[in-house]
Specification:
This protein is 28% helix and 25% strand. It has 300 residues and is α+β, with helices and mostly antiparallel strands. It has a domain of 78 residues: Orthogonal Bundle (Arc Repressor Mutant, subunit A), CATH 1.10.10. The termini are far apart. One zinc ion binds next to loops. InterPro entries: DUF7347, DUF7351, WH-like_DNA-bd_sf.
Length: 300
């Protein structure tokens, strides 16, 4: 068995793995097994489900998947983790769906002016903005799967919870796409976004510092507000709870320390030393982030 640290941990060539699905029957086989109870079916049941009468042909295609995507256990073909992931990638909708949502009211209020913000969705990107002060509060990709079996209001809530979770995870160094190592670095600008000529529209373009997240193993990268790290510090979270701010229920776009550039002050760049002001109803909290993107201290 190969494992972490071995020189050639690849079971099969990744390009060959993708080419396996150039024949539509192989996806049909995976989907048939997925839709059965316990993700397991007998040979004849799969053959019936995909409607292939030629046993030789069917056997050939099933064999191509056996091992990495499907395993035979006591006469049943069982979906393996790789098989699940192929289905999950398709069901996320990013390959074949492009829904749009015209602006609808989003819960909460704009952190700048108090107006009810709007949510809209286009080209796989969800945006929460304020029309009153013409501010983009939060913008991030969201899979079309997020709208399945949900009302738009439920999808807006799911977008909030998911983005909060993904930003926390990635800014702690773990990739939510491939489980790889994410480099977390401060930056003053977002060159890749700039390169794509989108920086002017980027929701956090005016922030004096951002996190540049970049996965060592896959193509994942993001630029996100540095205030996200406050959500992973139990002392800060506890203090905010006592001040009436519940970061588990408040939406990302309702947290001024995430949306408001003016609350972020860069004290030093070498090493990075950042102050984030967190206003509450009674007093203001100042949180200091150190060079390794952790909360260094908080002062009231
Ligand atoms: Zn506003
Ligand atoms: Zn990754």
């Amino acid at each position: 068995m190969t494992g972490p640290g071995d020189e050639s941990p690849e079971k099969i060539d990744p390009q060959e793995a993708f080419q396996l699905f150039s024949h539509e029957m192989r996806l049909e086989i995976l989907f048939a097994i997925w839709k059965s109870p316990n993700y397991a079916l007998a040979f004849s049941e799969i053959q019936d489900a995909v409607g292939e009468r030629d046993s030789g042909k069917f056997t050939y295609h099933l064999e191509q998947l056996t091992g990495q995507f499907v395993t035979e256990i006591e006469g049943q073909y069982v979906l393996q983790l790789a098989g699940h992931r192929v289905i999950d990638a398709i069901q996320s909708g990013i390959f074949h769906m492009s829904p749009t949502v015209s602006p609808v009211k989003a819960p909460g209020s704009c952190t700048h002016c108090g107006t009810t913000p709007t949510f809209e969705y286009d080209e796989l990107l969800a945006t929460v903005s304020c029309s009153e002060c013409e501010t983009k509060l939060i913008e991030y990709p969201f899979e079309p799967g997020g709208f399945q079996d949900r009302s738009v209001a439920e999808a807006v809530s799911a977008f909030d919870r998911r983005t909060k979770f993904l930003w926390r995870l990635a800014s702690s160094g773990a990739c939510f796409v491939c489980a790889g190592r994410v480099e977390v670095a401060y930056t003053e600008s977002a060159p890749q976004i700039d390169h794509d000529d989108r920086y002017g529209e980027f929701f956090a373009a005016d922030h004096p510092a951002l996190f540049h997240l970049s996965c060592h193993n896959c193509s994942f990268y993001s630029y996100i507000p540095v205030g996200i790290r406050l959500l992973d510090d139990p002392t800060v979270v506890g203090y905010l709870a006592m001040a009436g701010i519940d970061v588990t229920t408040d939406h990302l776009w309702e947290l001024p320390f995430i949306t408001d550039a003016e609350l972020v002050t860069v004290q030093s760049r070498e090493p990075w030393d950042i102050l984030i002001e967190v206003p509450t109803e009674t007093e203001s909290l100042t949180v200091r982030l150190d060079d390794d993107a952790s909360v260094h201290s908080l002062t009231v």
